[in-house]
Write a structure and sequence with these properties.
Blueprint (H helix, E strand, L loop, with lengths): L1 E5 L14 H12 L6 E3 L2 E8 L2 E8 L6 H11 L7 E7 L7 E4 L8 H10 L5 E6 L8 H5 L5 H20 L5 H8 L2
Parallel strand pairs: 1-4, 1-5, 5-7
Antiparallel strand pairs: 2-3, 3-4, 6-7
Helix pairs in contact: 1-5, 2-3
């Protein structure tokens, strides 16, 4: 069984904000495949699906991004999922808008949601898809990540979410090295 986690903040006021790229990615994949992510457990919304004959949980923690770790930890433990079978999708201010970087492990890079997951799992060795949202020196970080994409950024992000949908599919059938070689730009 695999666990695919999209990070974001719950609530209508946060829909389509930069910090919600993980939620947006899972929502797109779910809509494209007629999946409803509506089961509730451990402060998370999830759906159990089959992708390429592999059992997969699509998870959207409902704890705000910065507190995602407890929900992720509880899902791994309850469903007995190996951490090597987990993929986390989230925003990254250090990458230009729409740039996708896939890594097997790494630091939090200043992302408080990833920092919280690392703290709760007691390791930084988990697979991740980082999606660039760029930086804005004119606004403080909080207002920027909680802000919405402009029209130009929206077009870029919509294209990249389609690619992330392919990454989700490929996570169930290819080695992670192959996925990195296909999708890292």
């Amino acid at each position: 069984m695999k666990l695919i986690v999209g990070l974001g903040n719950y609530g209508k006021e946060y829909q389509n904000t930069r910090h919600n790229i993980g939620f947006m990615s899972l929502d797109y994949y779910a809509k494209k495949n007629n999946i409803i992510i509506d089961k509730k457990k451990f402060k998370g919304l999830y759906s159990e699906v089959s992708i390429n004959d592999e059992k997969v949980i699509l998870l959207k923690p409902q704890t705000y991004v910065n507190l995602s770790g407890e929900c992720v930890r509880d899902f791994l433990k309850y469903f007995k999922i190996d951490i090597n079978d987990m993929l986390v999708i989230y925003d990254d201010m250090d990458l230009d808008v729409g740039v996708i970087r896939i890594r097997e492990k790494g630091s939090s890079g200043g992302h408080n949601g990833i920092k919280n997951i690392i703290e709760n799992l007691k390791t930084s060795d988990f697979k991740r898809v980082r999606v660039g949202i760029s930086k804005d020196k004119e606004h403080d970080v909080i207002n920027y990540v909680l802000g919405k994409f402009n029209e130009e950024e929206k077009k870029i992000i919509e294209e990249k979410i389609e690619i992330i949908s392919n990454i989700i599919e490929d996570f169930t059938k290819y080695s992670f090295n192959k996925i990195m070689s296909i999708y890292n730009q």
